[in-house]
Amino acid sequence: MLRREKGFTLIELLIVIAIIGILAAIAIPMYRAQTVKARLTEVTNAMSQCASAIGAYYSDNAAWPPTALATTAAIQNTLGVAIAIIPSGKYIQSVGIGAANGTITFQATNTGDASVDNNTITMTPTLTAQGAIVWSWTGGANFPSIYIPKK
Fold first, then answer.
1. Quick one: which of 3, 11, 13, 39 has the fewest CB in 10 Å?
2. Is residue 34 part of a domain?
3. Is there a domain that residue 52 lies in?
4. Could you tell me the CATH number of the domain that includes residue 115?
5. How many domains are contained in the chain?
6. pLDDT single digits (tens) 104-146
């Protein structure tokens, strides 16, 4: 009687290992990028709150805040927006709002990407002919464009 061997051949095992390797090579960088984007959500949400408050300030006063708001206390006192920076805010190292132009600048940290950490992301307002405020996002030097919000 012939005995049938059970198990996988070497070729079958190599094919499975190759498939797992290819999937890992694609999935790990994508996972890392999505993790950094998720961490930057805290930063972009805080910036959006500041943008709304600056829009309301501009609507009420027909001007941008006259002095630079370089601390969270100044932002909270002038605009009424509370921002948590390190240590309570995990990913926001510093914040600033430009004098007389409404430009919002945040510095990110602890995101897991060295090109993002200690780099700035900026929201700049532009007034349209109808008086609406349009915000544009930019990153600092070497800030990866994939992490800059679209709108």
1. 3
2. yes
3. yes
4. 3.30.700
5. 1
6. 999 999 998 888 999 999 999 999 999 899 999 999 888 998 8
Distance CA 38, CA 25 (A): 21
User: Buried (b) or exposed (e) across 98-136, using 16+ Cβ within 10 A?
Assistant: beeebbbbbbbbebebeebeebbbbbebeeeeeeeeebe
Which amino acid would we find at residue 136? S
Interatomic CA distance for residues 69 and 151, integer angstroms: 23
The residue written with tokens 């996972």 in the block is 31
- State pLDDT tens for residues 22-32: 999 999 999 99
Give the CA dihedral 114, 86, 68, 140, nearest 10 degrees.
Answer: 10
Nearest Cα residue to 104 out of 42, 43, 41, 36: 43
